[in-house]
């Protein structure tokens, strides 16, 4: 690659990430998500990237029998579930007076994919994007990745190598400055609106980071029942239950890691 | 639970590797338990945590250093609750990396079967071969359990051979010190 090109590639990657944030951040009133949330069921035109994410969200919603749901409802209410409708334009409508669209569970994964795509488009032969643990790589080299034990974040659990694939993890939030304590996961079950018990953490390897990111939520919420959904989307996964042995799909590419004693 | 693999990780942590290696997972835990005790109806967790006097007894009986804080043990039980034997999940270091293996003991403390569950290094994987592991069957602490004495060496896997033989000796000592009464 020509000398100046790597910097241009990296800039393009960061620009792609910024664009995804501009389009999908729930905190911005002028993002596609913000506008859908304020539209009270009216048709809203959205960027093709947003449409792509909403399409996958709907497909996952159906494939997971409703476990995966980006139309969040306020807690402790009995209102009917929100409904997302996709329209030509591209455009969308969010039905349900209290429904709010939240792509926080998958937009980061999509941003990683778009960043990787930007690297490719500028002619890079290989690249890695890592957005706080959402990782994707392309090119001939394998990228070594270690995954922490969600129950003991000072310990490593998995070692694996990523090649032309993406990886994402969900689990209790851990701040190393506060020692080993792990806060409750931020993933809520759409039916109970509370954290799902039983799964301390999940890691997914999938063909895209959007898929990996989204599927971690399904594994967190559905546990071992997520296997058909994982298979359907060509993903491998490992999960750590709140108690007991770690579990993985048969095609899980990781091996068990150890820390120095 | 159908279709998922179970990963049981040993209690203590060992040296990390900085280089990628060829790992081989041979058996999941449940598969290994069933292979060792096909007649058992249940495997009941009976993990042990060592007290200082346990460590001293095991080291004295086996002549091998104890490096972990305990051991993962399961009681293999028949349908009527009768003890059939013990299934002990252990690990030793090959050259640099851990070898996860299991020793199945009869109820009276003889080796019934040895299985390697995961072997992480590029060389020395021959210890996982059935014919090599079969030589441990029937052994007790009264046997030397020494490579080049009553345990065949494997060329290119010398360290792994020694360490697995020591591991089996240590597991037999654990039986003698902690499990025999159970």
Notes on the structure:
The complex is a heterodimer of chains A (261) and B (182). Chain A is α+β, with helices and mostly antiparallel strands. Helices cover 30% and strands 26% of the residues of chain A. Chain A is built from six helices and 14 strands. Chain A has helices at residues 5-24, 32-38, 48-63, 107-121, 209-222, 227-232, and strands at residues 44-45, 71-72, 83-87, 91-95, 100-101, 127-131, 134-138, 143-149, 152-162, 166-171, 199-206, 236-241, 246-248, 255-256. In chain A, the strands form four sheets. Chain A has a six-stranded antiparallel beta sheet, with helices on one face. A three-stranded antiparallel beta sheet of chain A has the order 1-4-3, with helices on one face. In chain A, helix 1 (5-24) runs antiparallel to helix 4 and helix 3 packs parallel to helix 5 (209-222). Chain A is globular, with a radius of gyration of 19 Å. Chain B is of the alpha+beta class. Chain B is built from four helices and eight strands, in the order E-E-H-E-E-H-E-E-E-E-H-H. In chain B, strands 2, 3, 4, 5, 6, 7 and 8 form a seven-stranded antiparallel beta sheet that branches. The longest helix of chain B is centred in the C-terminal third of the chain and has 22 residues, at 158-179. The two termini of chain B are 31 Å apart. Classes of the chains: A alpha+beta (261), B alpha+beta (182). At the A-B interface, strand 9, strand 13 and strand 14 of A face strand 1 of B.
Protein topology:
The complex is a heterodimer of chains A (261) and B (182).
Chain A: H1 5-24, H2 32-38, E1 44-45, H3 48-63, E2 71-72, E3 83-87, E4 91-95, E5 100-101, H4 107-121, E6 127-131, E7 134-138, E8 143-149, E9 152-162, E10 166-171, E11 199-206, H5 209-222, H6 227-232, E12 236-241, E13 246-248, E14 255-256
Antiparallel strand pairs in A: 1-4, 2-5, 3-4, 6-7, 7-10, 8-9, 9-14, 10-11, 11-12, 12-13
Helix pairs in contact in A: 1-4, 3-5, 4-5
Chain B: E1 5-7, E2 24-25, H1 29-36, E3 42-45, E4 48-49, H2 52-62, E5 70-77, E6 83-93, E7 98-106, E8 111-119, H3 130-133, H4 158-179
Antiparallel strand pairs in B: 2-8, 3-5, 4-5, 5-6, 6-7, 7-8
